[in-house]
Amino acid sequence: MQNRSLSGKTALVTGSTSGIGLGIAHALAAQGAHIVLNGFGDAAVIDQMQKDIAQQHGVRTIYSGADMSKATEIEHMMREAATQMGGIDILVNNAGIQHVANVEDFPVERWDAVIAINLSSAFHTSRLALPYMKKNNWGRIINIASVHGLVGSAGKSAYVAAKHGIIGLTKVTALENAQTGITCNAICPGWVLTPLVQKQVDARAHDKSLSQEAAKHELLIEKQPSAEFVTPEQLGELAVFLCSSAASQVRGAAWNMDGGWAAQ
Q1: At a CB cut-off of 8 Å and minimum separation 6, what does 2 contact?
Q2: What are the domain boundaries of the chain?
Q3: 107-120 burial, b for 16+ CB within 10 Å, e for fewer?
Q4: Catalytic residues
């Protein structure tokens, strides 16, 4: 319980019932932040997740099942967080989905869904969190972009467009609050072995008759020079740093943690 730098703060992490979001939620809770979880999943599993975070880290947790593609549900989640937790000090916009197809074949409804969840939701949560942060002259907004916010990949037009947009939103939010105690930054992970990526590994293993390990290595080495996955725990520690006083002049950054992907 030593060095709990975020004691008394409340953090909302969207898309935090698995993968990157859950790793970040644990890292912030370890520093004493109360946690608002959000995402889809089995109710009993999520209930246990809440209890585990609360017991392991000695913090309060609540859960919202808000659909991040719907502005009205986001508004309800933010009101509930304010009612139950007082307000949001730390906002981590992590919720995301993926669809792969060439531009001319991309289903319009999938484009709309990716933009809504990966980009528009971060606008809605930010606009609703900022008044409370301004009142206290302290806040941290961390947008989980992707290395695809910095570079492109064929077949991922909606995802790449949304993640580039997230970095633009990050810069504007940072500039608008540059003379306050509120910072806004983006983290740009490379390959992380989330359930979303595991599906791509499984598909590759099936299509090419590869072992899981061979499929993982082949996937990684195409883009990520380290040939190692970034972990949710590593991303969580970076989020903790961005919430610290040491990062008070890190504003509008797009910080890639990508095993060298964008350095090529």
Answers
A1: none
A2: 10-190+231-259, 192-229
A3: eeeebeebbbbbbb
A4: 159
